[in-house]
Amino acid sequence: MSPTSARITAVDTFDVRFPTSRELDGSDAMNPDPDYSAAYVVLRTDADDGLEGHGFTFTIGRGNDVQVAAIEALRHHVLGRSVDELCADPGTLNRDLIGDSQLRWLGPEKGVMHMAIGAVVNALWDLAAKRARKPLWRFLADAEPQWLVSQIDFRYIADALTPQEALELLQLGRHGATEREALLRTNGYPGYTTSPGWLGYSDEKLTRLARQAVADGFTQIKLKVGADLADDVRRCRTAREAIGPGIRMAIDANQRWNVGEAVEWTRALAEFDPYWVEEPTSPDDVLGHAAIRKAVAPVKVATGEHVQNRIVFKQLLQAGAIDVLQIDAARVGGVNENLAILLLAAKFGVPVCPHAGGVGLCELVQHLSMFDYVALSGTTENRVIEYVDHLHDHFIDPVVLREGHYMAPTAPGFSAMMRAESLAEFTYPDGAFWAADLAQGKGAAA
User: Fold this and answer.
1) Could you confirm whether 205 is annotated as catalytic?
2) Where is the Mandelate racemase/muconate lactonizing enzyme C-terminal domain (predicted)?
3) Which candidate in 134, 289, 355, 367 is catalytic?
4) Among 110, 114, 222, 224, the one annotated catalytic
5) Is residue 224 annotated as part of the catalytic site, yes or no?
6) Residues 358, 380, 94, CA angle at the centre, nearest 5°?
């Protein structure tokens, strides 16, 4: 079939779950037993090139079936569409999905439906980058600023960022982009690791993994906090002793506290020199974050992994509520909305340090940060991408870390494609692992 007549022929979904709760990987004060999961989508076409678009959104086990159902509810917007037209202008699909009035009623632009939109939109960007034979970060960095602006929905954010301002930021970002791309390919993008800091880990495991992180070249680690103050004091002391004074240590409460508690708890841990406190309260509480930031300085305030859309990010920035903005590749409506958020952060001069870990979140978000460095903000100063060392082996193009830095992906696409054998083993409930598990009466993810 000629490329010009190629159509989307299938939108296949998979409920993929990994039993991470059994080793307490991912455990924190609000999520004690997560089974890291992906509501996974594959866009198939009838083009002769055989390329597919892969995308997903991240959950922690039960409820992944709800997320898959939400993706399936979008199928009719995608099937039969021209591949050429969609890849030339992914924003059209983004607008169509967000504009479905009856599904929009379930949000609007937040929650399960918005995450489903992000999964489908990200799959389209994966396909578009593959067809261009470029990794997504370079596909974006090479794009004309005017085209990138056309991909962004400025509704509800134009009071903080106009299309003209976005265009000027992107035009300015092109200066020196070639040199920065060369540096990126050589040096990579700085990362930090949360691997030592899960709340369920013993002090011995925390110490061992913290020392290993420093040996691996990381200059920042992160600890989960918020369940018990005395326990947090002990764990922060243990971690600081393990890494020494020259390594940054962030703390993450995962939304556990009221505003007053956040202030008191952070001050109680201040002796261990935390670099930032992450998600100290509800991600929707803009003024609460602002009050916490004022009260706990010089400890920085970071949030974003559960911020539901560009509008809330806009308000956090307008209110001066955060020192660090944390995008998530799969929480909002995909690449298009993350472009808007990156531009908002650039306009307000706030560094972006993405949330990652999970299933494939490291693989995805590295592309967004690398685009930001090469073609928008032009700097990695005080910017790091979160890294967690598990589940990467399930991806065809997993992240590569060298001396604490993400190395730039070279394979075309969004690094989103999972291995066929992983889908066969961990799709719930009929994959080989879960079928055997359920037959033994375990079924922890059910």
Assistant:
1) no
2) 203-299
3) 355
4) 224
5) yes
6) 55
Of 64, 179, 122, nearest to 336 by C-alpha is 122
Reported confidence tier of residue 42, pLDDT bands at 50, 70, 90: very high
List the domain boundaries for the chain: 3-135+421-435, 171-415
User: Using CA atoms, how far apart are residues 213 and 404, in angstroms rounded to an integer?
Assistant: 8
Question: Is the pLDDT confidence value at 443 over 70?
Answer: no
| Domain 3-135+421-435 coded CATH 3.90.1150.10 | no
Q: What is the pTM of this model?
A: 0.96
Share above pLDDT 70 across residues of the chain, in percent, rounded to a whole number: 96
